[in-house]
# Entry
Amino acid sequence: MTNQFPIIQIIDNQGNILDNTYEERITEDLAKSMYRHLLRIRTFDKKCISLQRQGRIGTYAPYEGQEASQVGSALALKDEDWLFPSYRDHGATMTFGHSLRNILLFWNGRNEGCIPANGKKVFPPGIPIATQLPHAVGAAYAEKRKGTNNASIVYFGDGATSEGDFHEGLNFASVLKAPVVFFNQNNHFAISVPLSKQMNTETIAQKALAYDMRSVRIDGNDVFAVYFHTLDSLEQARNGEGPTLIEAVTWRYGAHTTADDPTKYRDQSENEKRRENDPVLRLERFMKNQGWFTEDWKESMLVELSQEVDTAIEEMENFPKADPSDMFDYVFEKPTWGIEQQKKELLQQMRGEA
# Structure
């Protein structure tokens, strides 16, 4: 199956163009925009890990190493499209226009963090594995029924392909020809379970065959391959040609979450080997080859991006304190007697009356 589903690249890890058919479509403006987004979400990710270690946010899911998969795919979306992330796809939601402050609020345990900025159609992150896939199909099918040209993209990891929601989502999308792109980031581990123990298939892309669905397998660290193949898949979806499963082969350098110790199940020396294929470094090499890159430009941009994230952190930490009543008031339209009693007891305790 690896012959039928080869890993597609547009540039190699030294930044050389492998497919000249894309040469005219890769402009200096596009490359610089992509590079800025890559640096932006990596800066955010590193600062979030630091915040968690300081106790300023809760448990956090890092994505360093997967930036090209998230940036390239999110840049392919149109403003009115839908984005359905997992808990590790805040890099994609940032690129699509989500508020940095609200993303930080989410990792600080606040419901307000689920609210996207500027009317963007970003679903709250899917914490239970794969549950966001049927949601994405439903939204895409609704857009189809309404006669719009909008599509949805849904993100998930390799472990999600073992869940029933993965198969149900693909089946519904195939039957309904829903305009949805299933974007899989195959980072080779489902927490501690390696791909070899997760499935017997050689690829994830081949799973689409069971649903008579188009699929493609790409180098998830090649931002151009990600961008152009996601763009093509979204356009086919808009044109009524049905859904696509994209397998973006990538690697996550860090832990599953900040509550995890990857040394217990993964050879960490593999990280150093993988850094030669780093998505940021690869694009940087390409831009140097084209004469589009200077260190001064990079350094000034890093200062700007660091300030942007620091401002969002300050906004998050100055956000009004949470109202404990919210835990009870928005479970049902009309709270049950049990919820009313729990609310009363908590508020009494907080007032020192218990």
Observations:
- The mean pLDDT is 96.
